[in-house]
From TrEMBL:
Residues passing through the membrane, by range: none
An annotated GO BP: ERAD pathway
Sequence similarity: Belongs to the sel-1 family.
GO cellular component, one term: endoplasmic reticulum membrane
PROSITE patterns, alphabetized: CNMP_BINDING_3, ZF_RING_2
Species assigned in the record: Thalassiosira oceanica
Gene Ontology molecular-function annotations: zinc ion binding
Domain (RING-type) ranges: 39-85
Lineage per the UniProt record: Eukaryota, Sar, Stramenopiles, Ochrophyta, Bacillariophyta
InterPro entries from the UniProt entry: cNMP-bd_dom, Sel1-like, Sel1_AlgK, TPR-like_helical_dom_sf, Znf_RING, Znf_RING/FYVE/PHD
Protein name: RING-type domain-containing protein
Length: 260
C-alpha cells in the first residue's frame, strides 16, 4: 500500500470517527427546550410553535407569551412592553419599529439581527423583500449563537429558498440548533433521515421533538407506525410525553387569551 493510499484511508477513518462522535452527541443532547422558549415574565415554556403563542417586541427582544400579554392588558398595560415597560410605537409606525431593531442589531444582539433578517425576508416594516439580505443576516445571527437563525438557514438550504439547495449545510445548521433544544430543527433532521431511507433514525429524532411537545413529530411517528417503521410502544411513549409537555405550557391566562 502506498503512502498516499494509507494517508487517504487514515483520513477517511478519522472522518468516520468524527461523524460517529457527532451523531452520538446529537442524540444525547437537546432533549430539553432552551431557556429562550420560556416566557421571561411567568417563566413557563411557551406552547409550540412558539411564534403562534407569543410576541417579540423590538424594545427588549424578549418573547412574551400570550397569557402574560393578556394579563398585562387586564392590568391596564396596553401601550407598553409587558416585560420592560417601554412605550411601544404605533402599529403603523414602521420607521420607529425598524429603528429600534437596527439599534439593537448594530450592538451585536443576535436576536435582533435574526429578527431584522425576518423583516427583510418578508418585506415588512417598509423594507423591500430581500431574501439574500435576510440570509446574510441570519448567518451573522447564527455565528452569534441564534438557534432560530440556524433553523432558518437549515430551512433555506433544505428547500433552496433564496439560496442553492445544499443538504450538508442544511443538516449542519439543523444539528447546531437541535443540540441546543430547538424543536423544529430536530423535527427537520428526522425529515431528512426519512427522505434518505434512514427510518429508525428518523423516528429517534421525532421521538425527541414529540416529547418536547411538537405535534408534527408526534404525527410523523404515528404515520411511521402505520407504515411499520416504528413500534406501538414508541408511539405510546411519545404520545404520553407529548401530552405532558403540552400540559406544562398551559395556564389560566393563556387559556383565556386563546378564547379572545
Amino acid at each position: 500500500m502506498s503512502d498516499e493510499v494509507a494517508a487517504a484511508d487514515l483520513a477517511e477513518s478519522a472522518d468516520v470517527a468524527a461523524a460517529r462522535r457527532l451523531q452520538r452527541a446529537l442524540m444525547a443532547s437537546g432533549h430539553d427546550r432552551p431557556e429562550g422558549d420560556a416566557c421571561p415574565i411567568c417563566f413557563d415554556l411557551i406552547e409550540l410553535p412558539v411564534h403562534e403563542h407569543s410576541m417579540r417586541n423590538a424594545c427588549c427582544m424578549k418573547r412574551v407569551c400570550d397569557g402574560c400579554i393578556f394579563a398585562a392588558g387586564q392590568r391596564g398595560i396596553n401601550g407598553s412592553c409587558p416585560f420592560c415597560r417601554t412605550l411601544l410605537p404605533r402599529v403603523d409606525d414602521d420607521a420607529s419599529q425598524l429603528a429600534r431593531i437596527r439599534k439593537r442589531a448594530d450592538k451585536g444582539d443576535a436576536d435582533a439581527i435574526y429578527f431584522l433578517g425576518n423583516k427583510h425576508y418578508f418585506g415588512e416594516l417598509g423594507l423591500a423583500k430581500n431574501v439574500p439580505r435576510a440570509i446574510q443576516l441570519w448567518k451573522e445571527a447564527a455565528e452569534l449563537g441564534s438557534m432560530d437563525a440556524h433553523y432558518q438557514l437549515g430551512d433555506s438550504y433544505y428547500y433552496g429558498d433564496g439560496i442553492e439547495k445544499d443538504e450538508p449545510r442544511c443538516i449542519h445548521h439543523f444539528q447546531q440548533a437541535a443540540m441546543k433544544g430547538e424543536v423544529q430543527s430536530r423535527h427537520m433532521l428526522g425529515a431528512v433521515e426519512y427522505e434518505n431511507g434512514n427510518y429508525q433514525l428518523a423516528v429517534l429524532h421525532w421521538m425527541i421533538s414529540a416529547k418536547m411537545g411538537y405535534e408534527l413529530s408526534l404525527n410523523s411517528i404515528k404515520d411511521m407506525f402505520k407504515k411499520g417503521h416504528s413500534t406501538k410502544a414508541q408511539y405510546a411513549e411519545a404520545l404520553l410525553a407529548y401530552r405532558d409537555a403540552v400540559e406544562d405550557t398551559k395556564s389560566p391566562q393563556r387559556e383565556e387569551a386563546k378564547r379572545l
